[in-house]
TrEMBL record:
InterPro entries: Bact_Chemotaxis_CheA, CheA-like_dim, CheA-like_homodim_sf, CheW-like_dom_sf, CheW-lke_dom, CheY-like_superfamily, HATPase_C_sf, HATPase_dom. The modification Phosphohistidine is found at residue 48. It catalyses: ATP + protein L-histidine = ADP + protein N-phospho-L-histidine. This is Chemotaxis protein CheA. Residues 596-712 form the Response regulatory domain. Residues 1-105 form the HPt domain. GO terms for biological process: chemotaxis. It comes from Buttiauxella brennerae ATCC 51605. The lineage of its organism: Bacteria, Pseudomonadati, Pseudomonadota, Gammaproteobacteria, Enterobacterales. The modification 4-aspartylphosphate is found at residue 645.
Length: 714
């Protein structure tokens, strides 16, 4: 069954105008000499995405002009061209041409009847990208395209074209909305009757005794309370029904995917099937509109980098046809999207080599990068392992857009899991709606703040004595892992000098900690008081404040105070930058980097804290996230000592210790177990499998660890 592209062309017009607005803004800055590298990068990404969408929908004239425009922006980004007024004028000329093409598409309601691209304009853009601007500048001519008289499906706001002003709604959804509205109106009438009853009661009060008055007041308050509760429930029901009108099946996003994947694969001589699971799940239309671009980049990445040629797949024991699976699930926490391929997996050696080549990582430590750290490198702007620049890849654009859109713009999380030789999975978690979210509100020195609940793991109380100084930073031990403690007041630079001595939790012995988490780990954030957690309407920031990354929006508290919603990923990044040890640990009298230690723990926080402790004392450290990974690394590299946890997936610490003792070169290497399991039988088992020392995390002291390690190594 052929896919009707018409509805996707109309949606493309909305998205394309947004990208075109980004390029135009940058072009004006190019002309005035006020451009920045970041601005050029934004222009390039916008043009790249616009070109990809146009090609997918067979809008060849737009794709051809945008391709030449992208070449100019690529040269500007790589400092091979110098920005000037003529170049800015030419870029604006190209934008005007594309804008006119989009207007024609809109006027024809999505029917693709565009003429071929203007040859003269394409040639001028091509010459400019080769540095021939001096001769091309005087020849810039307009591409005359008749503008339609009206644009019925678009709305002009703030100088740019926004989303379509109309949507299709199922009749049953409208019926539900009208029925609820009828109930709300009836409830409102009852409340008006209550007000009128109160007015009528006034003249009779002077003729009543106390008992009669008391009965009248009690009767009135009881009925008013009942009517108010009914209306309260009806208002929430009205909101729920109204929001479903904006909900669309995710198949609206996935329907064109099979065609896109097939065409991309054919251009690379690959065979690909695309499976779609959970397409009936409904999500906010805003999410569908915003997810189109990152999904496009993930699919291009999967086809170009993930899936290999049929001959390579057959040699690996796989079928000649690769598979990309798009899965959507809904649970209490939101929407879960998975983009999964059965390809070769991430090429970690190539990622490490590229990181060194780009100066992101020093060559002498690149081999110590964990797979998680390598996964994060692929989201770095301009990062690509492609050996050649093509239409599909090699420009280093795409995954950085995915990260920004998912995490920063949509308040979601993004994780990557890769299995060498088996494939790669991108896991995206999003709120069900951008308009209404569950918010945990807290107080800090008489200021109100909120956090999106999906980032909150739990809330705990610890005494000051339970907070330890580890690697120069305060930390607690919770559920078998070290979690750094950060002061929200310090981080947000809130001065508490005006706050009373007994009003802040910072002066109390008990500390109230909110455990927050993203894909990089956990942190315990110190706050004064918790207020509540409930679903709240998110109000966007004013336009002049939208560059403020720390605050994603505002909500109104019950007493009508504005509450800032903090971006947890940005908050954690600030804490990590601020979290350098306050005082450097004293260096031990050992040769710098003379001992190489393997740390094995499934907790990212614990691995990083133990790593900081050891590196501060001159040790070289390699990390592993479970016993099996630790064993593999130990077989590839000879370590001088091993620190391991007990409770880990795949292979626990006892099994790892036993397996290492079976290796000839690890029979006499110090192995220290660091765990929260403090029972005597656990200690005895640790000794039985061959551990040289057993340290309970509850008794953890960094000086004790260093002394133990030094004693065993000497």
């Amino acid at each position: 069954m052929a896919i009707d592209l018409k509805k996707f062309v109309l949606r493309f017009i909305d998205e394309a105008n947004g990208h075109l607005h980004t390029v135009k803004e940058g072009a004006f800055l190019l002309s005035s000499g006020q451009n920045t590298d970041a601005q050029i990068g934004e222009m390039f990404r916008a043009a790249h995405t616009l070109k990809g969408g146009a090609r997918m929908l067979k809008l060849q004239s737009i794709a051809d002009v945008t391709h030449q425009l992208e070449e100019i922006l690529s040269e500007l980004r790589d400092k091979k061209l110098e920005p000037n007024q003529n170049l800015g004028t030419l870029v604006l000329q190209a934008c005007d041409y594309i804008s006119n093409q989009l207007a024609q598409l809109s006027a024809s309601e999505g029917n693709n009847q565009l003429p071929p691209a203007d040859v003269t304009l394409c040639e001028q853009l091509a010459r400019a990208s080769r540095g021939e601007m001096d001769t091309a500048a005087d020849e810039v001519v307009s591409a005359p395209v008749e503008k339609p008289a009206t644009l019925p499906s678009l709305e002009v706001l703030d100088g740019g074209l926004k989303q379509a002003g109309s949507v299709r709604v199922k009749l049953e959804k409208l019926d539900d909305l009208i029925n609820i509205l009828g109930e709300v109106v009836a409830s409102h009438d009852r409340l008006e009757q209550q007000v009128q009853s109160l007015v009528n009661l006034g003249p009779r009060i002077s003729h009543m005794d106390v008992e009669q008055l008391r009965k009248q007041v009690l009767q009135f308050s009881r009925k008013l309370k009942e009517d108010f509760q009914v209306q309260h429930l009806q208002m929430y029901e009205l909101y729920d029904v109204a929001t479903t009108i904006r909900m669309l099946p995710v198949s609206m996003l996935f329907e064109p995917v099979s065609m896109q994947v097939r065409e991309l694969a054919a251009s690379l001589n690959k065979q690909v099937d695309c499976r779609i699971l959970g397409g009936e799940v409904e999500i906010d239309r805003q999410l569908i509109d915003r997810l189109s671009e990152p999904l496009n980049h993930l699919l291009r990445n999967a086809v170009d980098h993930g899936l290999c040629e049929p001959s390579e797949r057959i040699a690996a024991g796989k079928s000649a046809r690769g598979t990309i699976t798009l899965t959507t699930q809904q649970d209490g926490r939101g929407i879960l999207l998975r983009v999964e391929d059965d390809g070769r997996g991430l090429d970690y050696p190539a990622i490490r080599a590229k990181a060194v080549a780009r100066g992101l990582v020093e060559a002498d430590v690149v081999d110590q990068l964990s797979e998680l750290e390598c996964n994060e490198l692929i989201f770095h702007p301009g990062f690509s392992t492609s050996k050649i620049v093509t239409e599909l890849s090699g420009r280093g654009v795409g995954l950085d857009i995915v990260r920004k859109t998912i995490v920063t713009d949509l308040q979601g999380t993004l994780q990557v899991h890769s299995r060498p030789g088996q494939g790669t999975t991108f896991i995206i978690r999003l709120p069900i709606s951008l308009a209404m979210m569950r918010i945990l509100q807290f107080e800090l020195h008489n200021h109100l703040f909120g956090l999106a609940a999906q980032y909150v793991v739990e809330v705990v109380k610890y005494s000051r004595g339970e907070v330890r100084d580890i690697a120069g930073r305060p930390a607690i031990i919770l559920h078998n892992e070290f979690i750094p403690v950060i002061s929200a007041a310090e981080l947000l630079r809130i001065d508490d000098r005006s706050v009373g001595q007994n009003s802040s939790a910072s002066h109390a012995n008990d500390l109230l900690l909110i455990i927050i988490q993203n894909q990089f780990g956990k942190m315990a954030m110190l706050v004064d008081n918790l207020l509540d957690e409930r679903s709240m309407m998110i109000k966007p920031l004013p336009k002049h404040m939208q560059q403020q990354l720390l605050v994603s929006g505002m909500v109104l508290s019950q007493d009508n105070q504005l509450v800032s919603i903090l971006q947890v990923p940005v908050l954690m990044e600030m804490a990590q930058k601020q979290g350098q040890p306050r005082t450097a640990a004293p260096k031990q009298q050992v040769r710098q980097n003379s001992w190489h230690v393997l740390i094995v723990d499934d907790s990212l926080n614990t691995r990083e804290i133990e790593k900081n402790v050891l590196e501060a004392h001159g040790y070289q450290v390699t990390l592993a996230e479970d016993g099996f990974s630790g064993l593999q690394k130990a077989r590839l590299t000879q370590f001088d000592a091993v620190l391991t946890d007990v409770e880990m997936p795949v292979m626990d610490g006892f099994s790892l210790t036993k397996a290492l003792r079976a290796e000839d070169n690890y029979q006499h290497i110090p192995i220290i177990i660091v765990t929260s399991r403090a029972k005597e039988e656990d200690r005895r088992r640790g000794i039985q499998v061959g551990a040289d020392a057993y340290i309970a995390k509850g008794d953890f002291e960094q000086d004790s660890l260093i002394e133990t390690l030094k004693m065993l190594l000497c």
